[in-house]
Amino acid sequence: MNHDVKVRPCRCRGRVLFAWACLLTVLCCASNAVANWPPLELVVARARSRALIAVDARGALRSAQAAAVGARVSRLQNPYFEIFGDRGAYTHDVQLQSNLWLPIEVGTQRPARIDEANALVDWRGRSLVDAEARAVGEAVYSYGAVLVASARLSEAERGEDEANVEARYVSGRLDAGDATLFDQGLAEAEVGRWSQLRAEAGLELVQARARLEVLVGLPQMDRPPEAPCSAPTLRQPGDAVRSPEIVSQSPLVRLLAAEAVYWEANRKRTVAEAYAPLNFVLSLNRGDYGETRAGGAVAWTFPITRRNQGEAARAEAEHTRVTDLEGALRATITVRLRAAYETLAGARTAIEHVDSTTLPAAQRVVLAATEGRKAGKVDPVRVVIARRDLAVARSRRLDLVLIAWRAYGEIAALRGQLP
Question: Residue 242 above 90 pLDDT?
Fold first, then answer.
């Protein structure tokens, strides 16, 4: 009995260790899968945090928050102390006079500075949101570009394999005296053509993947898995773009609105600081007979010739510029959103037509031409033409998919989220 009691804990510990090992293995595999080819949601999340424009905007926001610390300092400015000493012809001792100046802001300078600092922080915060939105839009398009480039490479590899098979078939027929040198040259030229297309598709994939890796900070992304390349799907109905709230909530529009508020606050602060702080003066000195003398004074600068006119005029001009730009931008964003939604819908419709009609018809032509060539009823050139037409149709379909991803990224950039 004692022996059983000692053994069972060992077995339990072994099972626990085995379970932990399995869990760590699964997590490592999942981590590698994410690092190799991540889903779109992870790409969007990493673009928000890792894209260069987002990192720069986040640093600008921290700088604005740091600058707001100085805007909240006390109304009492730094006091300064001065002392004078002189000696005349009829006095034997040195005459001393000391003054202590205490500048105090008695107007609206401090509240105006705080309002300007808060407006600057809000502006930089909106700039961060807009930068993240632009990063998301670029990442979405780059994600689709990698998918399309990978699909093009797969098509080129398949075409090259089929061309090699055809070249070997023609070579065998030539040895049997059932083909001509022209047939062999045509087959070899087709192999060379597909080899060139494969190389070009490989370079396109390298470039597209590099752009995506820079945006999301994943330098070890592999080629996407083999899957049908399709257009993105909207998560919300496309007619939502007609709502005015969609344009008003655009990060770019809200950015300009925040900038307009900042320039108005900047103008008010500039006008408030035209009035210098009030100086309270405490004086302590010694008279001609060595007696102690004390007094006080008040000093104030009259804003007559210098009232920050240039700074206030510039702030007002910037406010007018941003306000006018915001009004024009609303109409521009409305047009861009409508065009992007229509482009995405049109591309998806065209892709569905290609998948249901164009590609099946082209495939049937290739099959009929191949069978007719084997029966000696179709010229080999027609087989090549049929296969090229099918390859062109597939390439055009990928062009439509890329257009759809570009429109999808445009919508994401304008709305700041996946549509």
Answer: no
